[in-house]
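Input:
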Amino acid sequence: MTQAPTTPRSFQEIILRLQTYWASKGCAVLQPYDMEVGAGTFHPATTLRALGDRPWAAAYVQPSRRPTDGRYGENPNRLQHYYQYQVLIKPSPPDLQDLYLGSLRAIGIDDSLHDIRFVEDDWESPTLGAWGLGWEVWCDGMEVSQFTYFQQVGGHDCRPVSGELTYGLERLAMYVLGVDHVMDMPFNDPGAPIALTYGDVFRQTEQEYSRWNFDVADTETLFQHFKDAEAECERILASEAEDKAGRRIIMAHPAYDQCIKASHLFNLLDARGVISVTERQAYIGRVRALAKKCADAFVQTEAGGASA
Amino acid sequence: MPDLLIELFSEEIPARMQARAAEDLKRLVTDGLVEAGLTYAGAGAFATPRRLALTVQGLSAESPTTREERKGPRADAPDQAIEGFCRSTGLTRDWLELREVGKAKVYFAIITRPGRKAPEIVAEVLEAAIRNFPWPKSMRWGSGSLRWVRPLHSILCILTDEAGAEVVPLEVDGIRAGNTTQGHRFMVPGAIPIGSFDDYQAKLKRAHVVLDPAERADMIWAEATNMAFAQGLEVVEDRGLLAEVAGLVEWPVVLMGSIGEDFLGLPPEVLQTSMKEHQKFFSVRNPKTGRIEKFVTVANRATIDNGATILKGNQKVLSARLSDARFFWENDLREAKAGMGAWLEGLKAVTFHNKLGSQYSRIERIAALARDIAPLVGADADLAEQAARVAKADLRSEMVGEFPELQGIMGGYYARAAGMPDAVADACAAHYSPLGPSDAVPSDPVSVAVALADKLDTLTGFWAIEEKPTGSKDPFALRRAALGVIRLLLSNQVRASLVPVLVDPVRRNRAAMAEAGAFPGDEVPDLSNDRVEKECALVLAADLMTFFHDRLKVFLRDQGIRHDVIDACLAMPGNDDLTLLVKRAEALAAFLKTEDGVNLLQGFKRANNILTQAEEKDGVEYSFGPEPKLAEGAEETALFKALDRAEAAILPAMKAEDFAAAMAAMAALRKPIDAFFEAVQVNSENQIIRRNRLNLLHRIRAICGGVADLTKVEG
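Output:
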């Protein structure tokens, strides 16, 4: 069990090791979802696939955007764009904790020297109408992952229950690589002919997006986009189940894309500081309503476990 | 007499739930065993992050056989009735006995329940306990339907006697009970067979698991204080944190580390809160300087490098956290030194309550009220207003955004940084106090003024929008606010009639309601109508006063003053001056504890009863002064004189609010009143004498009634 793990040399090596590890444990290694999302959970491979009774096992990197966390690339730990590594297995296997600890070993965390702890942290996503129980995993006092047993998604009970693991990749990698400022972290191998740091790749984009998120994004346009996405989501879901050729095709995924859009637009509006405390709840409620309808639609589909 | 050992082994149980869960397991199992007819000598329950354990000693090996006789219907009853009886007893008709009862023949059922073996009962009871366990939050996992706090992995359930250990046959949702446990997750993985509770505890310890949470807490505290002491430092005590940390580890290893020099300039409250909230570190203080210089963290394992890697990691996380804190602190100080204007401006956008407008408009109200209250508490009105204006500015600071529990405390630092007078800064820091019942009460006059204004504005505001506490619901903590007002007034001996003080804040809050559009449609009142608004405010103020009186009763009851004693004082004029009210109640309570007090109360009640009855019967009030010349006999004359003396003593004492002196003077009436009733018949045949005596009794009532309404006192 404890063959001394070697220490990775770069950010990308940590990602590659996680990919290899979870592939070896039987997960389908998916690619990031091609839309702006706030967290890996929004990927339909998690949100929608956690619903219904069909078994599922997927792992993927998901670029995530949190406009309010932008710090122009100056803060050592905070970014408005960052990566999450996400694993979802349904039903949750009995040895999920051990599998998870194996993944830490795979990226070079030697658990005979470190203090790894599962500290209560229940997860809830008000925008997705989802919640679960689990922990944040601490390594020497630092949160390195979120570990959740999904109980409900989109207002539907999860049966069977999915186990979800989320790694905040930058933070985890900084810890493993012993780097103090995210921008100093080697992105590829430091010995490569063209060695790149995280800063080389992302410092400029962090500045550009921070400025746009906080000061420039046109709020009128964003409000309009929000309404459009909401309307389109509703319209898609209100369509007849049969298409013009008489095939039964429920469009849960296209509708869910609009829900994701609405959610991200809300985050942008929030960063622009134009949503008051009272309105906030109302907007979250609107996104949740969409998420619930998408979940309702998904469970009518084959992937959602509906018998044909 | 076998011993029972149960262990429910799961993934990590939240620390805050462990103690309660251990107790629940003990209660559910032992209650179930007893209900099934078993007895036991003793039981103990334990919890670690991964297990709940229960030991029951001296359990009976089987339950006794019981025999129950039940009387049924008569032999000639309809078939249906007899069949029903059979069903209810679980017997067929041939098993029923026919007996003569009087003249009738009646069916009897003899139900024998054979004793059952302990394992069978334990299995049943434990399964029920697991299925009905009262977790505050529970979950499903995998494909199962069982609920537990986190996935349940194994059940150890054995009965041990001289012959050895026996596994209780039991299976819950596919988990079959066995006789093995697991040691420390990382240090000693693998199954460990267990033969008894002693064996269990000993083997767990060898496998780096300390079963007893109290033992873990003791280990942590002893080790932490030793380490600190060795360096001339002390650990800041925090029992809640200690219990939580003991619930996060099975094998506590205490490590002490330093806080980087760069961070030692942060306020100690910030260091302590950041370390506790984010990392569950104990703060270690230099007793000479009061500065927090080090921290203690508790790891869940020993390592070959003696925790060096773990400590280094923790220190690094701490540095990142404190960098954040320092970043907030420095930004905040810049804003504070610039006068906090941007923060106050920002509070315009922060809603206090949707019917009462923004925090900004609330601050305006509090500032005005603090100004009004200042002279009542001996504070400088300008300083009180200045403090009230900035006391809540820190709500917009980055530090309070991160650590809401530091509100007020940060305000104090920022006001000082802005160059404001000490009294203002202190008031910012203290104006939320007192929060809990053991919280210190501010005593500096400016602090008192602002703390009172803050709470009174809250109370009048929520009274105005009719959001009063009901039953157990008090979402805006109004009871706590009222208790805060009471403690501020009493501990500072503030003398003021509250009702008039409440009028203006009620009116200001009604104005805020109008601005927030909180009056429904056509009911918007004309706030400029001074007479009507004042009247309306007085009604609300009076209602709020009742609430204060209720809270005061609860408060005084905890101090050992009976509710009827308080009622007797509440019935007196000026009861909205709480300091005066309490002074009176304390004097009365003390008086009623003396023999004179008890007897005087009896005499007073006797006088009052006779008088009341006579007044009801005659339909008049006997309030003419009695004529001393009509007194017959020494006792009556003596009472006249005693009343004159008492009155002469009580009136000035009351004027001076010297309740003790007034009560003492009242006590002097006890003997003359007793003697009077001993010797004299009030209801004399002679109507003139009778009326005179009733008028005399009225003087007793009036004189005593000037001190407190003794009719309200029980006994």
